[in-house]
Amino acid sequence: MMRYLIPLVAFIVLAAFLLVGLTLNPRQVPSPLIDKPAPIFQLNHLHEPDRLMASNDNLGKVWLLNVWASWCVACRDEHPLLVQLADSGIVPIYGLNYKDERNTALQWLKRYGDPYTISIVDTDGRVGIDYGVYGVPETYVIDKKGIIRHKQIGPVTVDALQKTIIPLIIELQKQV
Amino acid sequence: MFKNNYLNRFVVSRQSNGIKGLFFIFFLFLLIPSVGCSKEAVPVAEDPVIEKRMLALTMDLRCLVCQNESIADSRADFSNDIRREIREQIKANKTDQEIVQFLVDRYGDFVLYNPPMKPTTILLWFGPVILFIIGLGSLIVYLRRRRVQIQDVSLSQVQLERAEALLNENKKGKNV
What we know:
Chain A is of the alpha/beta class. Chain A has five helices and seven strands, in the order αβββαβαβαββα.
């Protein structure tokens, strides 16, 4: 009996591990920046290139930092949702235009709508590295103290908004 | 009849004119002097020492976009940026440790192909050893049991004689 039972148990354990492995997404690399202060930046506006925005300007409010680019196809998928979210007035969204060209980026916003309170430009991707960006789109939820509370890797979905992002934002907005 | 013939000829001549025209244009193109547009090969890096150190470092770092490639091998934009970042940090006299820590702070242990020993990575480090010990143990147990089984099966004198007789019989049969 044991003779057959041991391989069977071993097989089931192995199969269970592999099965769990199938449901994991290797693209979702957990960010070490969660619950850490958002890296400080000072970047030029997209619309008015001679104006600067510093990340510290946003201290005291909960905000979203959405990393996007006009060359990024998945950004187009999430864009209508961001426009809706911005229209709802729940939370201000700041756009980090990542490794893009100014003119195409502006055209893109004109075409698909502009949900961003301010768009800032990270032409060479340096701020992107500071934030651990390794693909666009990525969206960070940053709290009143300037701490990153959540990172959405890949496009924002209705599901992610309803289940995670919006409840988290409401929770964070209650904090002093 | 005449009209048709005329028309045919007309069409043919127009066609051949067209082909001639194409050849003419083709030869015109040949007349354009082929200006050498090539430049001298740009050196991969200004400083081969920096490049060597950068390569040695990035060999053990994972590209997060193409996860089975190292940053040294990868041609992804992400890896280009990280290589640039590392070159700059080497120029700024940072140690290898500082540079690796810089990346781990942003991308997590996942960038390391050589993960550090931590409570979460203990299974990763010792799992193979544990599996090996289990395998070796069960092999030893199995071999011991088999030896016992083999000792059990010893033939008595009578059985041996019978076996010999049977074998001899077989030989005779073949000879006939």
